[in-house]
Amino acid sequence: MNSRTTKQLAIVLVSGGMDSCVTAAIAHREYELAFLHLNYGQRTERRELQAFNDIADFYNVRKRLVVDVQHLKNIGGSSLTDATIEVSQADLARKGIPSSYVPFRNANILSIAVSWGEVLQAKKIFIGAVEEDSSGYPDCRREFYDAFNTVIRLGTKPETTLEIITPVILMKKFEIVRKGIELAAPLQLSWSCYRNEEVACGECDSCALRLRGFQMAGIEDPISYSVRPNYLV
User: Fold this and answer.
1) Residue 13 domain flag
2) Which residue segment(s) compose the domain that 111 sits in?
3) In this predicted model, what pLDDT tens digit does every residue of 21-30 receive, in sequence order?
4) Which residue, 54, 121, 148, 195, is the most exposed by fewest CB within 10 angstroms?
5) Rounded to the nearest 5 degrees, what angle is found at the Cα of 45, between the Cα atoms of 218 and 132?
6) Is residue 144 part of a domain?
7) Coil, strand or helix: which one is 210?
8) Which CA distances in Å does 166 have to 20, 34, 62, 142, 176?
């Protein structure tokens, strides 16, 4: 006698970038998916939202939540939200926090995900944080998510069993590319550029990390760039 097994629900935080796209592909193997996206007044808000919806369509995700949190733009302090701060040229050897850091952004989106997760009775929250980025972004470190899991346990109902999962956090970008190819993730639908919404610039930190990952993996990045520098030299 065959029995049908209903998959547990997981919320995936999908920015529209490569890391969140591959994270969605990983989560898709075992869970029913709900997608969460944040509009926070970033330079490429429209393009990121398009990528979010394109990836959601690819995985036939029906539960979608797009949240507008313009307070992050009003707070400012980031080249992604403040037009007076220039998006820096790529410097993959940079130490310290880059101008593109959005103060405590991931804590904001995780809090929203936990609220939604309680209502949906979800079991997991997937986020595509990568420790390779942590020298610049303190909210991409594994210990941050370990601490946030403690916050969830202490601040939700006793029957809530939500847990943050960071499946790519210890991967290098080229490993994320290869994992995406292995899982047939729709990398062609993702968007990583900090500057442009039509054609990726190829020269901001996010483009550089992505391009170097593809170059190290020996795979052609399927999206278009204004320039494609060789980041292996």
Assistant:
1) yes
2) 9-217
3) 999 999 999 9
4) 121
5) 40
6) yes
7) helix
8) 10, 16, 23, 8, 12
Q: Which two tokens stand for residue 209?
A: 């990390």
- pLDDT tens-digit readout, 128-183: 999 875 457 899 999 999 999 999 999 999 999 999 999 999 999 999 999 999 99
pLDDT at 5 over 80: no
Nearest to 233 by CA among 88, 87, 90, 19: 90
Question: Domain of 77: which CATH number?
Answer: 3.40.50.620
Taking the complete model, does pTM exceed 0.85, yes or no?
A: yes
**Which of 204, 155, 210 has its CA nearest to residue 16?**
210
Q: Tell whether 160 is covered by a domain.
A: yes
Any domain includes 223:
no
Number of domains in the chain: 1
Dist. CA 129–CA 107, nearest whole Å: 12
Residues paired with residue 165 on neighbouring β-strands, in sequence order = 126
Q: Tell me the CB-side half-sphere exposure of residue 169, using CA atoms within 13 A.
A: 18
Q: Quick one: pLDDT at residue 96? A: 84
